Amino acid sequence: GAVVSQHPSWVICKSGTSVKIECRSLDFQATTMFWYRQFPKQSLMLMATSNEGSKATYEQGVEKDKFLINHASLTLSTLTVTSAHPEDSSFYICSARPGTGVFRSYTFGSGTRLTVV
Amino acid sequence: TQLLEQSPQFLSIQEGENLTVYCNSSSVFSSLQWYRQEPGEGPVLLVTVVTGGEVKKLKRLTFQFGDARKDSSLHITAAQPGDTGLYLCAGAPTGANNLFFGTGTRLTVIP
């Protein structure tokens, strides 16, 4: 089946530094990928839609300059959390939709736990 | 942002009991999905419903999509400890490619 791989699975960084999270589609091409954030005991919140070869589309309230998204190839999207602060600590999850068709399903990565200290 | 409200938010039941989780919205969705998520992992798809009024069964789980495609329910029969987890509904707005998640229901099944 289709697999979406995220790396790293967890990362601890110092406040003020930047962290890059990778999301790869392993056996399919993804022109679009989605980035979610999940705080403890809460649901997933869509942050942005990553589009291959063009700018990402950010959801309302998400700072595009803080959460940089690059989708340079059909199998890789990256999310960079710039100048991270403790409040950015969260579980970040990406997803993609393999195949074609309006009702094709979404495949999710296993997530990246970011802790900013 | 398409708001999907789930109820109840938390549910703790004894093994063998039945339960229903509801997912409601004021928006219409072209499809609605149910996921289950374990701690520290991404959500795993349980089912996709696309037709208003559709009912799908997956062993002890029964999913229903509302006639107006604005709401859905998940019914679990004879719950087992292995059913413990976070259940999420998620809807794809008509004509859109992105998926919005419900507020989540955390289920605990006590042996």
What does this structure look like?
The complex is a heterodimer of chains A (117) and B (111). Chain A has 117 residues and is mostly beta strands. Chain A is built from no helices and 11 strands. Chain A has strands spanning 4-7, 10-13, 19-25, 32-38, 44-51, 57-58, 67-73, 76-81, 90-96, 107-108, 112-116. In chain A, a hairpin with a 2-residue loop joins strand 7 and strand 8. Chain A is globular and about 40 Å long. Chain B is mainly β. Chain B is built from no helices and 11 strands. Chain B has strands at residues 5-7, 10-14, 19-24, 29-37, 44-49, 55-58, 61-65, 71-76, 85-93, 100-101, 105-110. In chain B, the strands form 2 sheets. In chain B, strands 2, 4, 5, 9, 10 and 11 form a 6-stranded mixed sheet that branches. In chain B, strands 1-3-8-7-6 form a 5-stranded antiparallel sheet, with no helix packed on it. In chain B, strand 6 (55-58) and strand 7 (61-65) form a beta hairpin. Chain B is globular, with a radius of gyration of 13 Å. The A-B interface holds A 4, 6, 32, 34, 36, 41-46, 49, 59-60, 91, 93, 95, 97, 102-103, 105-106, 108-111, 113 and B 1, 30-31, 33, 40-45, 48, 50, 88, 90, 97-104, 106.
